[in-house]
Write a structure and sequence with these properties.
By secondary structure, the protein is mostly helical. The chain has two domains: 50 residues, no CATH class; 236 residues, MetI-like (MetI-like fold, Orthogonal Bundle). It contains 13 helices and two strands; from the N terminus they run αββαααααααααααα. The protein has a two-stranded antiparallel ribbon. A hairpin with a 7-residue loop joins strand 1 and strand 2. It is globular and about 75 Å long. It comes from Streptomyces tremellae.
Length: 322
């Protein structure tokens, strides 16, 4: 009995002549190319204006470069000189840390206080919100910093006001013990941006929580500590991270108030101001590049610490599902 040979079934072919999976990949690429076209200006800018300068800066940090002669490789000499042989570097680190520790909490406290006042304000809230936010737009300018220097200078308005109430401090700008606090107050005056963020967070807290706390006999301070602070903790954390990063990079107020030299007696020699002096005044660009990279590492370390410690005090409403 003979058997008829059977032919293997023919493989299905994709209409385009390609396997289905390859066709899907090609279709996905065809759908995504407009996105890459629109993203290309940002991608080119990120590479040309950020990544390439960072790579060049990292290379220069290991060289002796004065902006005029070709860079000369010196290895880790800039870093060792900075950490072991330069007392002004460590003074700038101490001044910057003092500024961050005082200015950031003060600015956030003023921002939260103003947001609490504006939360329940009916008429005129838009006007006051704009008025409180205006210093955040103006305070970073050199002109406002120069006005601030005039206010806190010897014979300025601040010293006259304090003299009338019996507090004789003289000019803050010329006092090594008070000059840095003039910069702190200028920063704290610019609390408008975190205030707006706090106000948005306060408006998202359910009123039922305050009503339940009031039924339990909680007063205003107890409600603030038990309801407002925990529910607002993610917003506090967000503002804290942003303001800390910005405070480490303060430059314009310090430059204007000190006259660009960090005086008196290096009391306003902030880190970025010293970086500017070494790089553009003394033409030690390699040294300045090394300072910039250590600042980047320090900011990254502080930010990492804030994120690690936030687990113990930041409360998220959807924490159980995270």
């Amino acid at each position: 009995m003979s058997t008829v040979p059977t032919r293997a079934p023919a493989r299905a072919h994709h209409p385009t002549g390609q396997p289905p999976r390859a066709g899907r990949r090609r279709g996905k690429r065809e759908r995504h190319w407009p996105a890459y076209v629109f993203l290309s200006p940002w991608m080119i800018g990120a590479v040309v204006l950020t990544l390439v300068p960072m790579a060049v800066s990292l290379y220069l940090s290991f060289t002796d470069y004065n902006l005029f002669d070709p860079p000369r490789w010196v290895g880790l000499r800039n870093y060792t000189e900075m950490l072991t042989e330069d007392p002004r570097y460590w003074r700038s680190v101490g001044t910057t840390l003092l500024y961050v520790v005082i200015a950031v909490p003060l600015k956030l406290a003023l921002a939260l206080g103003a947001a609490m006042l504006l939360k329940n304000l009916g008429r005129g809230r838009a006007f006051y919100r704009s008025a409180f936010y205006a210093p955040s737009l103006l305070g970073a300018s050199m002109s406002i910093a120069l006005v601030w220097r005039a206010l806190f200078n010897d014979g300025g308005s601040v010293s006259h006001v304090l003299d009338t109430v019996g507090i004789h401090t003289g000019g803050w700008v010329g006092n090594p013990h008070l000059a840095v606090y003039a910069v702190v107050l200028l920063t704290a005056w610019q609390f408008g941006a975190p205030m707006v963020i706090f106000l948005a967070g306060l408006q998202q807290i359910p009123s039922d929580l305050y009503e339940a706390a009031a039924l339990d006999g909680a007063g205003r301070w107890r409600q603030f500590a038990s309801v407002t602070v925990p529910m607002l903790s993610p917003v506090v954390f967000f503002n804290l991270v942003l303001e800390t990063i910005q405070s480490f990079q303060v430059f314009t107020p310090a430059f204007a108030i000190s006259g660009g030299d960090g005086g008196p007696a290096d009391s306003t020699m902030f880190y970025t101001l010293y970086l500017y002096e070494r790089g553009f005044t003394a033409s030690h660009m390699g040294y300045a590049a090394a300072m910039a990279w250590l600042l980047l590492i320090a900011i990254g370390a502080v930010t990492l610490i804030l994120f690690k410690t936030s687990r113990s005090w930041v409360f998220y409403a959807d924490e159980e599902g995270r």
